[in-house]
Design a protein that fits this description.
The complex is a heterodimer of chains A (615) and B (374). Chain A is an alpha+beta fold and 615 residues long. Chain A folds into two domains: 186 residues, Penicillin-binding protein 2a (Domain 2), CATH 3.90.1310; 361 residues, DD-peptidase/beta-lactamase superfamily (Beta-lactamase, 3-Layer(aba) Sandwich). In chain A, β2 and β3 form a beta hairpin. Chain B starts with 16 loop residues before the first helix and ends in a 7-residue tail after the last helix. Chain B contains 14 helices and three strands. In chain B, α5 runs antiparallel to α6, α6 packs antiparallel against α7 and α13 packs antiparallel against α14. A three-stranded antiparallel beta sheet of chain B has the order 1-2-3, with helices on one face. Classes of the chains: A alpha+beta (615), B mainly alpha (374).
């Protein structure tokens, strides 16, 4: 057996040696640690201070409340209602399908909600909350509150939601707000919209977006790691959007809409003095509330594919041939330009032929009107008189005179999406069709057919201008704005945009007298519509062909499908001496102007003139 | 004559309170200073939670009592019981794997009916004791054959603990065993071979790792890849320390800690709270006290009179250092996240008792010395 001999002195020295080596090892590692700490706390200190502040200080936007919209009597047309919405911050969710399924047990979540959520989520950065449901009921809010701990990253947010209390009333004038989409983002200052979810999409809501929206405010807050706000450091309140007071009269609007019954069409009523829109009808309309929080596909498709086109703003974008409603303007042009006189005679045999041509241009009255002058030509709407006058004027003078009334150009109304109509000219035809102008085209322009197209807004504005002897106002629907903290109103400036030069006031008077004959004369085309009116007024019927008839063909409304029937038009203003309201009515496929459009216009005039005077 | 002779002749001048109580004043004061500093940081990290601080005080009381108790045990007595302690520890570890409770996803606890017990804590002391016991009467430096036996004594419990899985503790136990071997004079050739073996073993180890352990390594290598998931701890603790600067944000003013950005801020990541609120200066103070403790322990080991005490004492000192460097390295982003507390500062129970029992052994070594005839 080998005896181990231990050398204590050697082992003690060995241990001492190794202990020193271990301490050196430890010292080296501690030096590395201290080096690291110097780097973190001295060299990169500023960087980490920034990160630390970023961690705890967050800027939260305070979206401004959207301005309200009132009619001219203070009836509210667009309102903000408190509502709760459920939002999910995708970044904080580990298992999205499970979270959605869990929520579905507490809250009614339909497939459309999920689809919309997925769509929104795909284009939102994951740290930003995405709404899943809007307008939660109180019960749903309570149910979620009890189970909230199960859903980190899911929040209920109280907010205001746009509401149109009268539903489809004046829908085409007001428009609606909808969720901000990518196209909106390109035209807005995104920082002013941080925290804002909705934006005006069409109508007044869009035109006055800036005024209604206001300016965003900020709240600098300290948060914990979960993003919960602990306290507010700095607060800069938002500037709420301004309220809008419209020139529109909600009651008149309602009456006008009702007057259409089941007809499709448009009516625009204007105060000739100011250019303010009193009624703005496009029938059928739709409920703008459907669009506020995203319309579901089925409802939208139903609206879009409806044959009556409820989404189509006929008053603003419907371009119709003016038909005979153009005749007073043509007649006035003939007088003012010295081409004809008030008492010049024209014989109407029921047709018109261009010199040396075979083609007969029909009068609507096959038997003819006999000998007519300006007054009877307008009152009975003789086509032959205006064929002759138009030919004498020529397209150039016709174009320049009618253009002064705003035909062929956008009226500049403060509702977005207006179309310009068309006032044809040689230049236009050369440019658009590369064809010369033919004299026959001048003829039919004289009775408002052919290429010429007008919108109901243009017609109403032109009628108002005529009633005021050429004083043309830009039609507008917003009368004044009101800052949220002030009771006083700031009127929206609206000066006359043009005074049409007057050669002789008598010419204007003669035309207006002729229009008076239309409704209140013995032989006027709309004498039925004018019967029993307690005031004097002026009007003109019009019938716009939807498709052309052959020379000898007789128009038989009963045989035609409704959709191919003529459009019925009527323009009017009242009272005769001191006009307070001018109106243009277009009833699609309504047949003759006197039968359908004139009574609607009369209803509007009656209702408005019965109302007590407002300043 | 041999040092085993019981001379019992003690120097009258040494019969002061340190020898009566078997405590070492310098070590004791350093440990008390550490605990006090720790309580201050803990109070802040707990957000003024008195209860947490009180519980920590109770634990410190138990731990210091354990230290004082162990300090009274003679090292010869400890040496005699070492094989039994080690053997039963090994058996208990096997029992934990077979019947243990699962806590926080790992099997570490053994429920003995009246008390829940963590055998791996026992092995923190038993392994270096066993290796020291085995080498004590052998000729040093150890021969390759004896090295292999000693290595087996270390590897067996380390593997059992790693299997629980408890990477932090198995690492600590492995290093405590390793330091015994190193201090026993293990030849540099064998050390080199050992490190080669570890290097080659790393891919094998990777294969046997749990997913969360692998994730920790991946996260360590690139914390930014998952800033809100696994990398969050490291990023936030770096922000906390870095934003503390030279002098810190002041006690109770750490925004990272108080706004709850810093996870595990009372336990494994408490060092970051210290760095945020007391700055580099506060950390240097802590490191200086730690250094005093380590140097004092090494000094005690060099002054020990038998090989067992020497090797055990030195190993315990270095294991304490490993604790510190692994925790601070993890919190500062130098090392992967390994769940080890910062000794005497982090909130936590069992491991503190074991740690203080280790200091008890060191005090025993120092205060049970016999005067050698000169």
């Amino acid at each position: 057996m080998r005896v181990t001999i231990k050398d204590y002195l050697f082992e003690s020295r060995l241990f001492m040696q190794r202990s020193v080596q271990a301490l050196v090892f430890a010292a080296l590692l501690i030096a590395v640690l201290v080096g690291r700490l110097v780097y973190l706390q001295v060299v990169a200190h500023e960087h980490f201070i920034t990160l630390s502040d970023d961690n705890r200080i967050k800027i939260l936007p305070l979206p401004p409340n959207r301005g309200l919209i009132f009619d001219r009597n203070g009836i509210i047309l667009a309102d903000n209602l408190p509502s709760y919405r459920l939002e999910i911050t995708p970044e904080q969710i580990h298992d999205m399908p499970a979270t959605l399924d869990g929520l579905a047990q507490l809250i009614d979540i339909r497939d459309i909600d999920r689809k919309r959520f997925d769509k929104l989520r795909a284009r939102t950065p994951s740290f930003k909350p995405v709404p899943l449901r809007f307008h939660l009921s109180d019960e749903e809010v309570a149910r979620f509150a009890t189970d909230r701990h199960r859903f980190p990253g899911v929040d209920i947010v109280a907010g205001l939601s746009r509401h149109y209390p009268h539903g489809s009333l004046a829908a085409h004038a007001l428009g609606y707000v909808g969720r901000i989409d990518e196209r909106d983002l390109q035209r807005i200052d995104a920082s002013n919209y941080s925290g804002t979810t909705h934006i005006g999409k069409v109508g007044v809501e869009k035109t006055y977006e800036q005024t209604l929206h206001g300016s965003v405010g900020y709240r600098q807050v300290e948060t914990n790691a979960e993003g919960r706000v602990l306290r507010t450091l700095v607060r800069s309140p938002p500037v709420p959007g301004e309220n809008l007071y419209l020139t529109l009269d909600a009651e008149l609007q309602h009456i006008a809409e009702q007057a259409f019954g089941t007809h499709s069409g448009a009516a625009v009523a204007i105060n000739p003095e100011t250019g303010g829109i009193l009624a703005f009808v496009s029938q059928p309309a739709y409920d703008p509330n459907l669009f506020v929080n995203g319309i579901d596909t089925e409802t939208y498709q139903a609206l879009r594919d409806d044959d009556d086109q409820p989404l189509f703003n006929r008053a603003l974008r419907g371009q119709y041939p003016p038909g005979s409603t153009i005749k007073p303007f043509v007649g006035l042009g003939g007088l003012e330009q010295g081409i004809t006189t008030e008492h010049s005679h024209t014989y109407c045999p029921g047709f018109y032929q261009l010199p040396g041509k075979d083609r007969r241009y029909r009068d609507w009255k096959r038997s003819g009107h006999g000998t007519v002058e300006l007054n009877s030509a307008i009152a009975q709407s003789c086509d032959v008189y205006f064929y002759d006058l138009a030919l004498s004027m020529g397209i150039d003078r016709l174009h320049s005179y009618l253009s002064q009334f705003g035909f062929g150009t956008r009226s500049g109304i403060d509702i977005s999406g207006e179309l310009p109509g068309l006032m044809p000219s040689r230049e236009w035809k050369r440019a658009s069709r590369n064809q010369p102008w033919f004299p026959g085209e001048t003829l039919i322009t004289g009775i408002g057919q052919g290429f010429m197209l007008t919108t109901p807004v243009q017609l109403a504005s032109a009628t108002a201008t005529l009633s005021k002897y050429g004083r043309r106002m830009t039609p507008h629907i917003v009368a004044s704005t009101q800052k949220s903290d002030e009771s006083s109103l700031t009127p929206v400036a609206n000066d006359p945009m043009l005074y049409i030069p007057i050669e002789q006031r008598e010419h204007w008077h003669a035309v207006i007298e002729a229009m008076h004959e239309v409704v209140q004369g013995k032989h006027g085309t709309a004498r039925k519509a004018g019967k029993g009116a307690p005031y004097q007024f002026a009007g003109k019927t019009g019938t716009a062909q939807v498709f052309g008839l052959k020379e000898e063909e007789k128009y038989d409304a009963a045989k035609l499908e409704e959709r191919l029937r003529d459009h019925s038009l009527f323009i009017a203003f009242a009272p005769l001496e001191t006009p307070k309201i001018a109106v243009a009515v277009v009833v699609e496929n309504g047949g003759s102007g006197s039968a359908v459009a004139a009574p609607i216009a009369r209803t509007i005039l009656d209702a408005y003139l019965k109302m007590p005077e407002t300043p | 004559m041999t040092p085993y002779l019981d001379s019992h002749r003690e120097d009258a001048s040494r019969r002061d309170w340190q020898h009566i109580l078997h405590l070492d004043a310098m070590l004791l004061f350093s440990l008390v200073a550490l605990s006090t500093l720790g309580l201050f940081v803990l109070y802040s990290s707990a957000g003024g939670d008195d209860q947490l601080v009180i519980r920590q005080c109770v634990r410190l009381g138990i731990a210091f009592s354990a230290m004082a108790l162990v300090a009274r045990l003679r090292t010869q007595w400890l040496a005699r019981w070492t094989p039994w302690l080690y053997g039963s520890g090994l058996l208990l570890l096997a029992a934990v794997l077979a019947f243990g409770d699962i806590g926080k996803g790992a099997q570490r606890w053994l429920d003995l009916g009246f008390v829940r017990f963590q055998p791996s804590e026992m092995m923190k002391l038993a392994v270096p004791m066993m290796v020291a016991w085995y080498l004590a009467d052998k000729r040093l430096p150890p021969s390759p054959g004896r090295f292999l036996i000693a290595a087996a004594l270390i590897v067996a419990p380390v593997l059992l603990i790693a299997k629980q899985p408890d990477l932090g503790t198995s690492l600590l136990i492995a290093s405590s065993g390793f330091f015994v071997l190193f201090l026993a004079g293990l030849s540099w050739k064998l050390l080199g071979g050992l490190s080669l073996l570890v290097g080659a073993g790393a891919p094998v180890l990777w294969h046997f790792m749990h997913d969360y352990q692998r994730q920790r390594v991946i996260t360590f290598l690139d914390p930014e890849q998952d800033p809100l998931g696994a990398g969050y701890h490291i990023i936030q603790s770096k922000i906390a320390i870095g934003s503390g600067g030279l002098f810190g944000k002041g006690w109770l003013n750490g925004t990272q800690a108080h706004l709850e950005f810093l996870p595990e801020r009372s336990t494994d990541f408490i060092f970051a709270v210290l760095g945020e609120e007391f700055g580099l200066l506060g950390i240097i103070v802590l490191l200086v006290i730690y250094s005093i403790v380590i140097v004092r322990c090494i000094y005690i080991a060099t002054q020990a009179q038998d090989t067992y005490s020497r090797l055990l004492g030195g190993s315990l000192a270095m294991t304490f250092f490993i604790y510190i460097i692994v925790n601070t390295g993890m919190v500062t982003g130098l090392l992967p996240v390994v769940g080890l507390p910062l000794p005497l500062v982090s909130y936590g129970g069992t491991s503190m008792v074991t740690l203080m029992a280790g200091f008890g052994i060191l005090m025993s070594i120092h205060t049970h010395r016999k005067l050698l005839p000169t």
